[in-house]
Amino acid sequence: MGLQLLELIVVAWLPGAVVFRLPFVERERRAALDAEERLFWAIVISLGISLAAVLALAASSRYSFKNLIIADLIVTLAGCLVARFDLRLGSSARKPGLTILIPIGLAALGLWRFFPPSEYIIGGKDPGVYLNEGIQIAQRGAIVATDPVIASVPNFARDLFFPSHQQREYYGLRFMGFFIRDPDAGTVVGQFPHLFPASIAIGYGIDGLTGARRAIGVWAILGLLAVYFTGVRAFGRTVAGAACGLLALNVIEVWFGRYPNAELVMQTLLFAALLADARAHVDDDRFFAPVAGFLLGLLLFLRYDSLLGIAGVLGGLALSSLIGRRVRWSFLATLAVCAALAAIYMLEPMRAYVALPILFLGKLDTWQYAALTLAAGTGVLALTIGARIPGLAVRVQRTTPILLSLIVVAAALYALYFRQPGGKLTDYDAYALRTFANFYFTVPALLAAIVGYALAARSSFWRAPSLFITIAIFALTIFYKIRIVPDHFWMARRFLAVILPGAMLFTCYAALAGTLTGTIRNRVLRGALGSVFLILVAVAYARASRPILQHVEYAGIIPRLEQLSKTIGDRDLVIVESRDASDTHTLALPLADIYARNVLVLASRRPDKSSFGAFLDWARQRYRRVLFIGGGGTDLLSHKWDVTPISSERFQVPEYEAPQNIYPRLPRAKEFDYSIYAFTDAVPEGARAPFDLDVGVRDDLHVLRFHAKEITEGHTFRWSRDVSYVSITDVTPASREVVLWMSDGGRPPAAPPADVTIELDNVPLGTVRVTTGFKPYSLEIPPSLAARLATAAEPVPLKLTTKVWVPEKLLGTPDDRDLGVMLDRVAVR
After folding, report:
1. Dihedral sign for Cα atoms in the order 223, 226, 229, 232
2. In this structure, are residues 63 and 201 in contact, taking their beta carbons and an 8 Å threshold?
3. Cβ of 407: how many Cβ atoms within 10 Å?
4. Parallel, antiparallel, or unpaired for β 796-802 and 755-760?
5. pLDDT reported for residue 515
6. pLDDT of the residue at 617
7. Strands 715-728, 796-802: parallel, antiparallel or unpaired by DSSP?
């Protein structure tokens, strides 16, 4: 524990504290800042330095936590030598006062609201990709990692696991979210930029997998503090403290404070950059100019929509230059250097990530190009000659806040009350602002935020122009087009980084602005009314977020994966069923990247048998065992090899529901049901037992296009779909019938009859009407067909065709599966 604390101090405080205390560029001005803000800057600058070091080391394939500690100590020592160890702030430094209790309280509130973090370490979606990217950096020391399993796969077998993606910026997929760049070298890179994963790598270095998971909670707390200090400077402590208190209660902040995402990193770094920009260009503090440029530059390694934040800051600077304020060259130079490095990074290891944004920019309409060109040209003119135009400064200073307020208020009211879907405009885009208000923010609070924006712009715009413009840019862009699947809470990510905290600040400003002017009596009365309003909003937020405080997404999956990994040896090869078979493939990513097992994921549930047989011969010579993990059905049986069951697992973990265009209410149980098999030598033809398959019990290699295993009234079974298959591994010349034990599952009257058509090797055997209760249904096998199939080189398919029904549509239940019949057993006699 002591060593971990020391490591945390070195990574997250020491180099930033030294840089902040350097005896240059008017150190006494920094010393005059509140003690709590000085500590905040030491932490943020330290984290920026550490993250930059992680990226630099990983880009050169030299990252390790030890090397990061050395890099931070080198920066610290260099700062001490440059300063000649003169790092005392002196008597001008403000002592901590009672105001320090506010950020301490916010941090404590964050510890309560944002921990424990989710156990989202599996693949399949962004959170698992981010976490495994970070652990990949921590374990392999590189952004573009070398995967020996990929490099070892013979050329003839590559299409079984990672077929080539023609006309793409990468060869194929290693796992969902991980691209193979060169299969010969085995080089793999994550789908997302690596700034957030870099922080996960730091957490992993400090406290293993637990530290990696906790990284997002730390970012959430830092996000609260960044918004607070930015709000303090622009609107005062009362407004800022109230806004951040509400932010910590809001369901979006709480959910994503426990759920790995890059938006909370953006929230922290962008609001810190906005504060540094205001300190540099409004308060004229030279120290903060390169700090602002550095923090904005780091955002380029986080998400491409961070460009909106940079545009907001540059827009604020352009307007500031029009009223005579100077833009510091150190800010522009620092941002330009970061942008150049980010361009190299994006166009080389991350070129697959930027391919879509580049394609999007290439398809803009002419008017959109013209608008971008006009905006850029206006900004350049403003930065160069704007201040020289007589009388322009006064007009800009007077009209800009009014004009921007009118645009924001008009757009918000239109989107809230009048915007309708039509043409290419989807319902979730048209109703995006309404969704934000109704699901997450409340309509009264949003109306207060709209009023607050107009009031604050009139009085405080020129104290923080970049803040107002950045929030407006994000709101106008995000609410125009969400560009994300409208699952909730997933869609709420779009509001998290800027819109939610910005709206909180303006809501609290509207509620508390009356306390700033007027008689004492009026100020007290307005303050009381505003406080009651905010308390009601806080109660609504607390009530909405209460269910998820007791919820840990995927709680318990880590010990399950640890148990699974222990059954797999270092010299075993694990083949996992394909993504179109079941969710079992999501376990493959952590097995490979966290637990260092040799794993391959099939690209199809019906792989080419000839290629797979040749691969299996190769793999069994190279590895001690070749294992298969699956639960959804994969066509892998052959007379040329056999499989031996090893174990079966079935467990559930909590997963919060994610409906589209509906507010999520409660957690559900996500089930994992899989079996492990070992590939062995083929069984001699005369030694095979008659075919008799108990469906739902280690049947994973016999069934195809069925639903998951289930048990009812002592029967194991699977629901069939419209077309489902069973692989029949043994038909003899004496076989005369196939018997299927089936039930219709209690079809409702509105559903079509459960008529099942049976075909064996594409030869129709007949149609049966299945009724309620499990009963045997026999169909005759013609002698000529039995004689032909007895000599077949591979197992033959038994095809079931059924008219399906969907419980969600007919019964109104959440079950959206297409259900055929319940199949319990199949036998050939």
Report:
1. negative
2. yes
3. 12
4. antiparallel
5. 74
6. 94
7. antiparallel
Assigned token pair, 681: 């030598």
CA triplet 324, 329, 331: central angle to 5 degrees? 100
State how far the alpha carbon of 414 is from the alpha carbons of 450, 486, 626, in Å. Answer: 12, 21, 61
Provide the 3-class DSSP secondary structure of residue 767: strand
Give the pLDDT band (50/70/90) at residue 249. Answer: very high
Residues 711 and 741: their CA atoms lie apart, in Å, by 14
Tokens of 793: 């080189």
Taking each continuous run of H as one helix and of E as one strand, the counts in the chain are 31, 18
670 pLDDT above the threshold of 70: yes
Decide which of 322 and 340 is more confident. Answer: 340
Four-residue CA torsion sign, 244, 250, 253, 257:
positive
> Using the 8-state DSSP alphabet, how is residue 691 labeled?
P
> Quick check: 248 and 224 in contact, CB under 8 A?
yes
Q: What is the pLDDT of residue 384?
A: 66
First to last CA, the chain: 66
The answer to whether 268 and 502 have CB atoms below 8 angstroms apart is no
Residue 544 makes CB contacts below 8 A (sequence gap 6+) with 250, 251, 440
CB-based burial, 536-561: b 16+ in 10 Å, e otherwise: ebbebbbebbeebeeebbbeebbebb
User: 796-802 and 667-681: which strand pairing?
Assistant: unpaired
- Residue-wise pLDDT for 213-223, tens only, equals 999 999 999 99
- Give the number of C-alpha atoms closer than 13 A to the C-alpha of residue 282, restricted to the C-beta side: 21
Q: Is 386 a residue whose pLDDT tops 60?
A: no
CB 672 within 8 A of CB 650: yes
The answer to whether the CB of 757 falls within 8 A of the CB of 704 is: no
Burial of 384 (0-12, 13-18, 19+ CB in 10 A): exposed
- Going by DSSP bridges, is the β-strand pair 755-760/763-769 parallel, antiparallel, or unpaired? antiparallel
**Cβ count within 10 A of residue 20:** 24
3-state secondary structure of 98: helix
Distance CA 800, CA 770 (A): 12
Amino acid identity, position 429: D
Distance CA 489, CA 664 (A): 7
This prediction has a pTM of 0.93
Alpha helices (runs of H) in 60-125, residue ranges in sequence order: 65-82, 101-114
